[in-house]
Amino acid sequence: MLFDNLSIIDGELAFKNKKATYLTTKYGTPLMALDIDKIRGRMREYLSAVKTYISEGSSVSFASKALCFTGIYRICSEEGMGIDTVSSGEIYTALNAGFDVDKAFFHGNNKTDADIEYAIDNKIGYFVADNIEEVEKIDAYAFSKGVKQKILLRITPGIDPHTHSAINTGKVDSKFGTPIETGQAIELVGKVLSYKNVTLCGFHSHIGSQIFESSPFIFAGEIMLNFIKAVKDTFNYEVKLLNLGGGFGVKYVETDPEIDYTKRIKELGDNLKRIATGLKINLPDVILEPGRSIVADSGITLYTAGSVKEIKGYKNYVSIDGGMTDNPRYALYQSAYTVLNATKIEKPCDYVCTIAGRCCESGDLIQENVKMPKPTRGDIIAVLCTGAYNYAMASNYNKIPRPPIVGIENGEDKLLVRRETYADLVSLDV
Ligand SMILES: *Cc1c(COP(=O)(O)O)cnc(C)c1O
């Protein structure tokens, strides 16, 4: 099977040796379960790799937009991970977990005045400032509080990670950051260095997602190290941090490649050292910010099948008791997922069907052209690799309550986020 935390017990699918029916009887469906041991293992792998192969001061921040709830920040804290946040709501959730936000980065292309004040009041470690207006506001508010605020600047290296082509891609015109190509990035640095209440600690770039090779990161790293050198030569100012963003890939389906994160990070580290030496600059400490590759393949979603509808000569629909409200990724991006009939896991996969959600929306699909043993109403349908950008993107469209999250660790299952109730659904209404 796709992952080694999956097995077959008594003829049905088991996740971490918990039978699907054990989990669904105890917690109901739809249900998201997380392999917490695997999440911790992945965090440790990343941390050890950056410290061994890049530098002792290098670090890893979990991009918490991928999966945000109080418990995940506790795990980050216990594992010594930094975090990336993109809103005051995420910062609030991290604080709720007791996370020391000194190790937090605050991202986003449009932080409001309220966001900036909230983050400084709560002593955020770093802003990743996107634009000059933000820097002005950060500087002014830091001045009013009598503090000096650490920042990185988001820079657009202008590369397409999937073709590795530089500059002449659409990437320069991203809504995020400031491009090097147009000369605007170096100009921005000049302005930022004149502000008294911000300390420019480094630069940040994020090139994309589902990247399986190290070469796009090396390419981006090379552009960024050249930029660091240009800043040093122009302003006699050398930054200490280079944040290369997130984006390492995850195996969603059998045809996706396997990725060895340690090996990729070693390739990155070896090359960054070589490039820095060639440029005669010190290699800054490097920060990686993986989201997907920390949590995606630790998650599984279990649903109950409802109707099995055969439209003669066209297609077959298997409807489940969830859908785009707990996993909008197929509706948004036609993302590939592995879908299994957990109840009939040992039967032949000879039935082709579309897995449909329950919303009043034709596009509410989880996957098309799935091959599985033909389900009947009541079967448990499992979707693999749902740990990232599923719960985090869940909604209450059609007033459907969001599912619970159950964590499994050291052989024990426990509720980490409870199922939303109907009362929760009207709790904001006045
Ligand atoms: C989305 C994002 C990440 C995480 O990307 P993954 O593909 O989930 O690893 C990291 N940094 C920034 C700035 C992002 O926007």
Describe the protein in words.
With 430 residues, the protein is of the alpha/beta class. It has 12 helices and 21 strands. Strand 2 and strand 3 form a beta hairpin. Helix 2 (36-53) runs parallel beside helix 9 (261-279) and helix 8 (215-235) runs parallel beside helix 9 (261-279). The structure holds pyridoxal-5'-phosphate. Pyridoxal-5'-phosphate (PLP) binds at residues 63, 65-66, 84, 107, 206, 209, 245-247, 289-293.
Distinctive features:
430 residues; alpha/beta; Lyase, Ornithine Decarboxylase, Chain A, domain 1; TIM Barrel; 2 domains; 9-stranded mixed β-sheet; 21 strands; globular; binds pyridoxal-5'-phosphate
Q: What's the helix and strand layout?
A:
Elements: E1 6-9, E2 12-15, E3 18-19, H1 20-27, E4 31-35, H2 36-53, E5 59-63, H3 70-79, E6 82-85, H4 88-96, E7 104-106, H5 113-121, E8 126-129, H6 132-145, E9 149-156, E10 178-179, H7 184-192, E11 198-204, H8 215-235, E12 241-243, H9 261-279, E13 285-288, H10 292-295, E14 299-310, E15 316-320, H11 329-333, E16 339-341, E17 351-356, E18 365-372, E19 380-384, E20 405-409, E21 412-417, H12 422-425
Parallel strand pairs: 4-20, 5-6, 5-13, 6-7, 7-8, 8-9, 9-10, 9-11, 11-12, 12-13, 15-17
Antiparallel strand pairs: 1-2, 2-3, 4-14, 14-15, 14-19, 16-19, 17-18, 20-21
The structure holds pyridoxal-5'-phosphate.
